[in-house]
């Protein structure tokens, strides 16, 4: 593609006349051609997304105003009574709070662990190629299958988890049947599976850092701890924010781990929003009510993630200044 | 400090490696157990702690009481390859266009289009599970590879757009592709679709 060799010039900016320099003849005849050309890149993806996302989304919104359930399938109009029921549904809000706890807790731990591990295999370590690959393995496995294995590990009498606890002189836990420990179990599986993602992003960030600031710090006589807080961490802020946001988005969708490991139990101790919506929608078949929960959930997620992104930007970038 | 540091470093690396590897080893050793080996408490070492048997493996590969593993694997391969191919083409095209050109349609600018793509990742699959379920039911595609393949790209296109725009994004996008090969299989929607049969 001839376009690829051109520098990212302002030539394609609408309204700005094309600069004649550095452009071969016969290429990008004028602003009109460029404008049409660039649409060919964007439109296929955009149209497909609109078809398979926007239409179902609008349909979900419409269904959320109907009483569609197993006995009365169909699109009638009942106004906002699904949403009234939603605001009174304590189980829904409890599941949201639980989701916030699990998602933020796991991502915070994953970030600290991931950063530490990325730093460990960043430089002079024997066999670092091997460890870099090994650290990424859990991410490449299928969550459902690994969760089945974890469920056997957490078995109270037959699994190794309590064996390991005994090794460290700790009391045996009811990993999946007491409400506190079940949340911890879900978080352990999530951390096991997704810390590699953090390692990957942060290691890629570390490897792309320029060498000069480290040389300057070394010449100025900064020790390893000071180098980290004054050079490495500030340089890593942008990619850290990106990694945390991506993981928060992914973690808030947690469903398969809960489904396999605890099925939301014991009671509703590990029931997250996705799982509760799934129960109401596709198990109880209260399609209308589940649609209103889905839509409310989407709005809440977009708003809260926007605020979290802004807060992170301010907290971390402010520190850099 | 300087003498202790390598010990701590390699200790941490080996500790985490053990945590990473443990579930795989547990699955491996469990796969050679019979019912007695499983139900007599946690056992780790074959011959020393339990009597290993190939019962599980032979039934996997067509022994007595075996299950068909070929068809599910074929389904996975068809769904993942199809979804990945579509989403890589659409996602890289869109990401290239968005990083290379400036688009403007009224008040909609590049950053808004990027946010639209990325917001598809925010949307949890379960939000769309119900309309997809009904749509596929209507089209008679429920519990078919085509249905799964059709719904997966929606997620993957979004992820491809993020990863190619990340700083130092080559490594993440490679991993995302690898991950994308595994994700649709694990997607709750697949379970949802087969359950609704």
Number of domains of chain B: 2
Q: What is the radius of gyration of chain B computed over CA atoms, rounded to a whole number of angstroms? A: 23 Å
CATH-derived topology of chain A: MetI-like fold
Pair with the most extensive interface?
A-B, 90 and 82 residues
Question: Structural class of the secondary elements of chain A?
Answer: mainly alpha
Largest sheet of chain B, in brief, is:
2 strands, antiparallel
Low-confidence region ranges of chain B: 147-197
Class by SSE composition of chain B: mainly alpha
How many structural domains in the coordinates of chain A? Answer: 1
Q: Helix-strand pattern of chain A, N to C?
A: HHHHHHHHHHHH
Approximate strand percentage of chain A:
under 5%
> Helicity level of chain A, as a percent range?
55-70%
> Residue-averaged pLDDT of chain B, rounded?
66
Q: How does this model look, in words?
A:
- The complex is a heterodimer of chains A (321) and B (197).
- Chain A is mainly alpha-helical and 321 residues long.
- Chain A has a single domain (81-320), classed as Orthogonal Bundle (MetI-like fold).
- Chain A has helices spanning 31-63, 81-88, 90-120, 128-136, 143-153, 160-167, 179-207, 212-219, 224-251, 256-261, 273-283, 287-320.
- In chain A, helix 11 (273-283) runs antiparallel to helix 12.
- Residues 1-30 of chain A have low confidence and may be disordered.
- Chain B has 197 residues and is mainly α.
- Chain B has two domains: 4-60; 70-194, no CATH class.
- Helices cover 73% and strands 2% of the residues of chain B.
- Chain B has helices at residues 4-30, 35-39, 55-60, 70-100, 110-122, 125-139, 145-165, 170-186, 188-195, and strands spanning 104-105, 108-109.
- In chain B, strands 1-2 form a two-stranded antiparallel ribbon.
- In chain B, a hairpin with a 2-residue loop joins strand 1 (104-105) and strand 2 (108-109).
- In chain B, helix 6 runs parallel beside helix 9 (188-195).
- At the A-B interface, helix 1, helix 3, helix 4, helix 5 and helix 6 of A face helix 1, helix 4, helix 5, helix 6 and helix 7 of B.
């Amino acid at each position: 593609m001839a376009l690829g060799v051109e520098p990212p010039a302002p030539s394609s900016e609408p309204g700005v006349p094309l600069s004649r320099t550095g452009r071969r003849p016969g290429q990008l005849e004028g602003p009109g051609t460029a404008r049409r050309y660039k649409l060919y890149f964007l439109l296929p993806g955009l149209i497909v997304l609109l078809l398979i996302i926007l239409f179902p989304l609008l349909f979900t919104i419409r269904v959320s105003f109907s009483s569609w359930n197993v006995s009365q399938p169909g699109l009638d109009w009942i106004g906002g009574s699904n949403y009234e029921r939603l605001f009174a549904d304590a189980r829904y809000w409890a599941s949201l709070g639980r989701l916030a706890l699990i998602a933020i807790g796991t991502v915070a731990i994953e970030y600290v662990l991931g950063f530490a591990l990325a730093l460990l295999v960043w430089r002079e370590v024997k066999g670092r190629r091997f460890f870099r690959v090994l650290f990424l393995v859990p991410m490449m496995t299928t969550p459902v299958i690994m969760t089945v294995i974890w469920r056997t590990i957490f078995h109270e009498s037959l699994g190794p988890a309590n064996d390991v606890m005994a090794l460290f002189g700790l009391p045996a836990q009811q990993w999946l049947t007491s409400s506190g420990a079940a949340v911890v179990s879900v978080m352990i599986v999530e951390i096991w599976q997704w810390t590699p993602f953090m390692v990957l992003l942060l290691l890629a960030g570390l490897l792309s850092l320029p060498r000069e600031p480290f040389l300057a710090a070394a010449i100025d006589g900064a020790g390893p701890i000071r180098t980290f807080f004054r050079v490495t961490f500030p340089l890593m802020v942008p990619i850290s924010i990106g990694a945390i946001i991506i993981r928060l988005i992914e973690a808030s969708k947690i469903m398969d781990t809960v489904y396999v490991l605890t099925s939301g139990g014991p009671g509703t101790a590990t029931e997250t929003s996705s799982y509760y919506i799934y129960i109401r929608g596709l198990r109880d078949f209260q399609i209308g009510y589940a649609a209103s929960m889905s839509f409310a959930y989407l709005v809440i997620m977009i708003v809260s993630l926007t605020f979290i992104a802004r807060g992170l930007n301010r907290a971390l970038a402010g520190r850099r200044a | 400090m300087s003498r202790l540091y390598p010990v701590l470093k390699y200790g941490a690396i080996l500790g985490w490696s053990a945590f990473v590897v443990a579930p795989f080893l547990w699955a491996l050793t469990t796969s050679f157990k019979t019912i007695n080996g499983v139900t007599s408490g946690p056992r780790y070492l074959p011959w020393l702690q339990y009597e290993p048997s190939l019962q599980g493996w032979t039934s996997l590969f067509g022994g007595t009481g075996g299950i068909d593993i070929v068809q599910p694997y074929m389904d996975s391969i068809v769904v993942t390859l199809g979804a990945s191919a579509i989403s890589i083409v659409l996602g890289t095209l869109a990401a290239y266009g968005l990083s290379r050109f400036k688009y403007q349609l009224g008040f909609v600018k590049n950053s808004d289009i990027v946010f639209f793509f990325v917001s598809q990742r925010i949307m949890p699959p379960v939000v769309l599970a119900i309309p997809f379920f009904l749509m596929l039911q209507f089209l008679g595609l429920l519990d078919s590879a085509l249905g799964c393949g059709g719904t997966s790209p929606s997620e993957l296109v979004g992820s491809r757009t993020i990863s190619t725009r990340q700083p130092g994004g080559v490594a993440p996008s490679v991993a995302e592709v690898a991950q994308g090969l595994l994700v649709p299989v694990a997607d709750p929607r697949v379970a949802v679709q087969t359950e609704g049969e």
